Amino acid sequence: MNPKNRDALRARIVKAAEAALAARIYATSIDVLVGIGWLDPGAVDSWRRGQLDCLERAIQANPSRVSEAMKLFRQWADEKGLKPSQTDYVARSPGREMLRFSMSGDWASEMHYRTHWVSRALSEKQREHLAEKASRPPDLVVIQPLNRDWTCHRCGGSGRLLIMEEPGPACLPCVGLGDLEFLGAGDAALTRKVKAMSPRSAIVVRFSRARGRYERQGILAEPKALEKGLAEIEAAKINSGDRRLGRGPLSPQT
Description:
four-stranded mixed β-sheet, 2 domains, 9 strands, alpha+beta, 8 helices
């Protein structure tokens, strides 16, 4: 890469990295690749759902330019005095597979991509908390389709809810979520409590034609967590003199 092109690329990388650092107190390789236009956010979402075997397949640049961009990003981080923090990336799928960044899959490449560069202004405890939060598996997303004219790619069945996998939609029993119960949106405190108590949970969304986007309908959680959460919220309201319990529907709308 000639010096002029390298300087232009560096300026774009610095701009993307500075924006990420200002917004979140850390910057990542994904922030940079998206910020300079080499990686589409939609492709990142597909990768996070486990629908791409590695993120590099979605990067719109040749390997040598990507390698040069990552070197420039690390140089910027060193110059800023940022601290490296290794972060796990887990798929937004029931299997919670570890996501792969590089086509080669070699350790050095993966570590470069997985490194978050964090502000030194944070204390050690704050950095540890940030690393733990960044490594936390993302919420599973279950879709409530507008109609039931769909077929599970695993069993050929259908249903009121589905989860997207790389080959296509799958029903909840096939992905091991068939026993979860639905808690409708409306009571934020109850939702937080039930979600925290449930080892397995998922967000339920439904597409709004009017708004042109998916909107949250509630969550799926394990029956025991739902029962315990309802009981604790009800007890707290009774103790506070409020006997009205705000409870959402326990089955998705049809």
